[in-house]
Design a protein that fits this description.
The protein has about 90 residues and is α+β, with helices and mostly antiparallel strands. About 45% of the residues lie in helices and about 15% in strands. It is built from three helices and two strands; from the N terminus they run βαβαα. The chain has helices at about 35-45, 55-65, 70-85; strands at about 5-10, 50-55. A two-stranded parallel ribbon has the order 1-2. It is globular, with a radius of gyration of 14 Å.
């Protein structure tokens, strides 16, 4: 039987020990834009057709408060690769 594989929550924001939300300017240890992008690519290569992200509000927080557009750029790259069939 053919079954679609879905990832319903790819972590796309940090989840630091002891913090509900990582608000500090220092970059988090648990998750970074490039590690998120690599994980996304690996999942696509493994055949996952649908990958839903967790953390969009954090991307905008980092950009708005600290001028850190790394998360938004990583997501833009995902969109670009998805449109190109990657």
């Amino acid at each position: 039987l053919h079954k679609d594989l879905w990832v319903t929550e790819l972590q796309a924001e940090p989840w630091e020990p002891g913090e509900l939300v990582h608000l500090a300017e220092v970059k988090a240890v648990t998750c970074q834009p490039q590690s998120f992008l690599l994980t996304y690519r690996e999942l696509r290569e493994m055949g996952f057709g649908k990958i839903f992200f967790w953390g969009a509000e954090y991307w905008f927080y980092r950009a708005g408060v600290y001028g850190d557009h790394g998360w938004l750029e990583a997501v833009r790259q995902v969109i670009k690769e998805t449109r190109q069939g990657g």
